[in-house]
Amino acid sequence: MKANIFGYLHLYDSLKLYSLAVRKVLNETNNNATMLNDGRLVWNAMRRMSFEGVVTTAGGATGTVNMDDLSDRAPLFAAFFIAPNRDKVLKMVSMESVLVPNCNGLKNLSGCYDLKMSDVMTGFWPSENGQMPLDEPYCGYRGQRCSYTLEIALLGSVVALIVSRSSSSAIAKRELWIRCPGASSTTTCA
After folding, report:
1. Is 187 contained in some domain?
2. Is 78:118 a contact under the CB 8 Å cutoff?
3. Dihedral sign for Cα atoms in the order 78, 81, 82, 86
4. What is the pTM (predicted TM-score) of this model?
5. 48 and 92 inside one domain
């Protein structure tokens, strides 16, 4: 029976993170081991740390480990698709964390990372060009970024034209009826 080590890869990364943070604290305090009892000092050493995660011979990897301002791992996501008629797994979208410039995560209680999406698979999305949809629609979610002045003016002109044509037709019929009582619109008044 083959053991599945993928469940332990993140444990390895967390132990490596802790050992790197401990080494950093020891280097900064001239190998003063009593400083390792200060959890806040070790936690601060983990902030914004970056190192390469574990790589396996099977091709699986945890990727580069980037820690944010709160000493949480900045996430790496991917979305996959398995077609019903295929056994192949297709990567659709890749999402990586990007550091926000001039951000202090301790003040605003965020990690100071945003997710950047990149379209890996084209032709999958149900759009006109097969590309991934925009983060926000062209005109905004409520249409606030587009001007509809031209469409409103055009529609108002069409409505005004229809109203004026129907009212002028009604006026012409009434004048005909006044001049020639009992005449229809197809007959002429003698």
Report:
1. yes
2. no
3. negative
4. 0.54
5. no
